[in-house]
Design brief:
Layout (H helix, E strand, L loop, with lengths): L12 E9 L5 E9 L2 E6 L7 E3 L3 E5 L1 E6 L15 H12 L4 H17 L2 E8 L2 H11 L2 E8 L7 H15 L7 E7 L7 H13 L3 E6 L3 H7 L19 E5 L5 H9 L3 E4 L1 H6 L7 H6 L3 E4 L4 H4 L4 H14 L6 H15 L15 E5 L10 H8 L5 E6 L2 E5 L2 E2 L4 H14 L1
Parallel strand pairs: 1-4, 1-5, 6-7, 7-8, 8-9, 9-10, 10-11, 11-12, 12-13
Antiparallel strand pairs: 1-2, 2-3, 5-14, 14-15, 15-16, 16-17
Helix pairs in contact: 2-3, 2-14, 11-12, 11-13, 12-13
The structure holds zinc ion.
Zinc ion binds next to loops.
Length: about 425
């Protein structure tokens, strides 16, 4: 269906011949015109100077990974088969040996994987984030970066917070605006109420997001339950607001869900990480019912296995079905695009005039994708390796499966050598 006329003369290039996943999550035959990094028209184009052929493709918003730790590719496959507390201790011991240049390399590999599997924007928290930032800048991807805060380790809190503030201010709107920043207390188990309060206030003063792991494990939920209040305990910290991106919320009870909804908190659901670490299943259907902005994340490659958002979408859908609840394909696709972009404060996640041209082309001419319902194929059958072309802000990062800005072979070789030496 054609619902708009495309003025191609105004465009730098036009994506032609594909089916567009429209903001209402329906597929429509349309071309997409892009100029200065922005979608300028969606409709039919008669001609254009430069075209990108989307024949047999679904043209859809790039996926938004709402919770990850890019340098954690360094620890993929380490500390396996452990339950959460033992796993966390094992990971922290290994992270103590990771250097800033390691972080750069790990983040670079994650960027390669994300580009190849259709992610165009993401929320990223780790240590040595200045070195992750330089890798992400090189990749061309869009990231919201936080330098994690865990209290203790011999560093006074005020020094730690001053350092994080310097990072937030230096790297916000960096790399032509593709990189922004946020504050990132690790969790209410590893940060005091005082630290959570101070970081919340800093996020307000600097007008940036704040993210934290929230109600991820039963143990953390029980810590907060001491006064029988869960998220009510956190109200005085100022943490609960539209600036908060909470990861996991597996142990959110009905009152917590209402609080998340009332305060406009976004929740990043990480189904694969939660299953792998055995922490439980997030109440996604209940959160959606209460209009919580639920998005999808992969978590780091150690707890999540991969950065493939298609795998996370599929697992999210299957977990809902496993509980005997209805899964709407549109809801799953929205969580990975529209909701994720909203949580990160990006004018992206939709193929719509005026939105950022963060777009992927999914090659549907594959044996495992032919069927009755292309949306079902996207959620239940596609993998990240079906993404053929990817762009961020109109800059093509991968074309016909070839990455353009990073030497993929070189990164993999360096990474393998690092693993061998670790
Ligand atoms: Zn995490």
């Amino acid at each position: 269906m054609i619902w708009n006329l495309c003025k191609s003369a105004m465009s730098e290039f036009v994506i032609t011949g594909g089916y567009v996943l429209a903001p209402d999550m329906k597929l429509k035959r349309a071309d997409v015109a892009v100029s200065s990094g922005i979608i300028t028209q969606v409709g039919e184009c008669q001609s254009a100077e430069q075209t990108i052929d989307a024949k047999n493709c679904i043209v859809m918003p790039g996926l938004v990974n709402a919770h990850t730790h890019t340098p954690m590719t360094l620890l993929r496959g380490a500390c396996e088969n452990l339950m959460f507390e033992q796993w966390q201790e094992c990971i922290w011991n290994r992270e103590a040996k990771i250097t800033p240049s390691d972080v750069h390399l790990g983040s670079l590999l994650a960027c390669v994987e994300m580009i190849k599997t259709g992610t165009t924007g993401f929320a990223d928290v780790y240590i040595h984030m200045d070195h992750a930032a330089s890798a992400i800048k090189k990749s061309g991807l869009r990231g919201v970066l936080g330098w994690g805060v865990i209290e203790g380790f011999g560093e006074p809190l005020h020094e730690k917070l001053a350092h994080r503030r310097a990072f937030v201010r230096q790297y916000n709107n960096w790399a032509d605006g593709r990189i922004t920043t946020m504050y990132a207390p690790h969790s209410p188990s590893t940060c005091s109420m005082e630290a959570l309060g101070l970081l919340s206030r800093m996020s307000e003063e600097d007008n940036v997001l704040v993210t934290t792991h929230l109600l991820e494990t039963r143990k953390e939920a029980e810590t907060l339950k001491k006064d029988n209040c869960h998220l009510r305990c956190l109200k005085d910290t100022g943490l609960l607001s539209g600036r908060l991106l909470a990861a996991h919320s597996v142990w959110a009870n009905n009152e917590d869900i209402r609080i998340l909804s009332q305060h406009g908190v976004s929740v990043a659901h990480n189904p694969i990480s939660n299953m792998k670490l055995g922490v439980g299943t997030a109440p996604v259907t209940a959160m959606l019912r209460e209009h919580v902005n639920v998005c999808i994340g992969t978590d780091g490659a150690a707890p999540g296995g991969s950065m493939d958002m298609f795998a996370s979408m599929r697992t999210a859908a299957l977990l809902i079905r496993d509980r005997g609840q209805d899964t709407h394909l549109q809801d799953i696709l929205k969580m990975a695009t529209v909701n994720g972009a909203a949580a990160l404060g990006l004018l992206a996640g939709q193929i719509k005039k005026g939105f950022l041209a963060d777009i992927i082309l999914v090659d549907m001419k594959k044996p495992h994708l032919l069927g009755h319902d292309p949306l079902s194929a996207l959620v239940y059958s596609a993998t990240g390796s079906d993404v053929k072309t990817s762009m961020v802000g109109g800059e093509v990062l991968m074309e016909d499966y070839r990455i353009k800005k990073i030497d993929e072979e070189n990164v993999m070789e360096r990474f393998q050598k690092w693993i061998d030496d670790f």
